[in-house]
Amino acid sequence: MMIMLTNVAQGLLWAIMAIGVYLTFRVLNIADMTAEGSFPLGAAISARLIVSGSNPIVATLAGAAGGALAGVISGWLNTKLKIPDLLTGILTMTGLYSVNLLIMKAANISFLGHVKTVFNSVSAMSSLGGTIIFSSGLVLVLITSLVLFFRTEVGLAARAVGDNPLMSAANGINTDRMKIIVYMISNSFIALSGSLMAQTNGYADVSMGIGTLVIALSAIIMAEMVFHKSSLGKRFLTIVGGAIVYRWLIAGVLELGVDPNLLRLFYAVMLVLFLSIPRLDRRLARFFRSWFKKEEVSK
Prior knowledge:
Order of helices and strands: HHHHEHHHHEHHH
Distance between the termini: 55 Å
Largest sheet: 2 strands, antiparallel
Mean pLDDT: 87
Oligomer: single chain
Number of strands: 2
Structural class: mainly alpha
């Protein structure tokens, strides 16, 4: 039970990252590689500030702001310089690796000896139950804020740009601005997740963003496999559930004695399976339909 609850707490923080990835992946139809740089960026900024004695809440918000800035850079490269989506993310991610090293001044920063983090700044949050309650409340606030945003004129315009950019431009929507806004919000969520993950793990590492995109996409695809059509708010909630279940799967694999060094391979294999299940379902359905037809003809 303790292992399951621990992974619920971790899954809630992963869910924030997955929701951020969802914004570019489904709203803009882009698999933004910036996520693998903005995740450790949030961790690096908050870790450096907390170790320097800053308020943990201010440090966490600063980490999210750093991610938003990274998103603006990716959006600007994509919209103004017309660099392709995938290459844009790779360029920003590569540049952020050096930026993160400059911020941390080392490959990693430990919080040992620095007890003030978001999770233990209030005694009620220092326990596992308190962490889960705090993370759940934060996730609900973020989801509510996103749902309300996408009901505004700007939010509806952003969704329209993702659905049909040419038609949106023909209707007078500034498509470049809308894309930059979504990039910014997406990476602020991802960096916020990285900041909170570093604080709950007790350290920030320059390589902690590797595999971030695969983890987030796995949670998204897993949620969409179960809930095909739902409102935006319910979709965000299913992503939260997908992140928690995915975290349980990883915990189960580790309990089986699998080498932790193989985890990233597991991430990739799981995503391949999730992506291929719909196609396998269709093939199986066609196989059984043809098989039943042959049986009827033979009779």
